[in-house]
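Hi P.,

Sorry for the delay on this. The queue was packed all week, but I finally got your sequence through. Input first:
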Amino acid sequence: RKEKKRMNLVIAEKPSVAQSIAAVLGATKRQDGYLEGNSYIVSWCVGHLVELATADTYDERYAKWEYADLPILPENWQYSISKGKEKQVKILKELANRKDVDVITSATDAGREGELIFRLVYEKIGCKKPVKRLWISSMEEIAIEDGFKNLRDSEYYDDLYHSALCRAKADWIVGIN
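Then the structure:
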């Protein structure tokens, strides 16, 4: 019986970074919205694919500004897919749900914003597969190779994600109010 090949879905922050990573990993077969090969699928976000929902998502009356409605403070935060980016979210969801994909690697930019970009997409697509984190600050081939030899569990970066989410919510609250 032939063993089924296990795939690692790598999600970068932008297409150019995904192409550099894919070249190092040997994922050279171009598909619609991703590259594949050598047990890797490399795809990308296009910046913020998922964002905090607009105020009128919570209540239609917030579509028009009324001083009496302030402050607007969501009890349960909602998220929406950024306009024009639905197709890439759909591609990422399909890739993450492939039966041969058993691990996701977050390869968004090393920092608070990159962590937020990946986590919001991961949650929006309803993925439950284990996540590893690529943490590199250079797109040099050797840096990418070393980064993949030193992947960490995503939980290691939970505090960074929570600080990014807190900052995004604070910006939303201040901006709206």
